Amino acid sequence: LATGPRQDNGIFYEIRTYEIKPAKMNEFLEMVNKYLHFRTAHSELVGFWYTELGAMNKVYHIWKYDNFAHRTAVRRALANDKDWQAKLTSAILPLVEKQYNEVAYLVPWCQLGKPPKEGGVYEWVTFQMKPGGPALWSEAFRAAINAHINTGYTRLIGVFHTEYGLLNTVHVLWWNESPDHRAAGRHSAHEDARVVAAVRDSVRFLESQQNVLLIPLQCSPLK
């Protein structure tokens, strides 16, 4: 199946999702905030969040790599990093129920963004699209994303589509000033004819959708 055009370099993002034992979430977050600098010494962290709404006891973190050789070198270095292994990996593994990872690219029409200020909340929206990739759904999906951007209530951070993991998956990361600001903006968007028309056109490519509200950790570059 065609995947369509994508960014013209090898940069990709590894999206890691961990399910944490319910009684151990605070301990997990404390350990990560304290010792994650051992991990970020090896490669770039985009952001690290825990879920507040839409899912419980989950964390999301995104890592940037120049190419697959870069990731291989980083993983090899981590395996030999005694501080990383002893102070964080061995400490948090007993707190984790499950781990998932995906490799994803930014869609060609999106650059990774930043929020205008610290202190807001993030929304992670996962779309399961019909098979065919961006060559099939990109134009309509982009129009729907732009329609929401044009309302002005939310800030787009990134749109990622999977290369490894569950295929035909698109993750969209938004930033809002607060949950209430997001709720008010969504209400207005639902009454905006431009948004309604764009969404109606894009949902013909959609299989399912899930969203969660994320809070950034203290150690997260995106706050």
UniProtKB/TrEMBL annotation:
One of its GO terms (cellular component) is mitochondrion. It comes from the Eukaryota. InterPro entries: Dimeric_a/b-barrel (IPR011008), NIPSNAP (IPR012577), NipSnap_domain (IPR051557). Residues 13-111, 122-221 form the NIPSNAP domain. GO terms for biological process: mitophagy. Pfam families: NIPSNAP. Belongs to the NipSnap family. This is NPS3A protein. It comes from Melanocharis versteri (Fan-tailed berrypecker). The lineage of its organism: Eukaryota, Metazoa, Chordata, Craniata, Vertebrata.
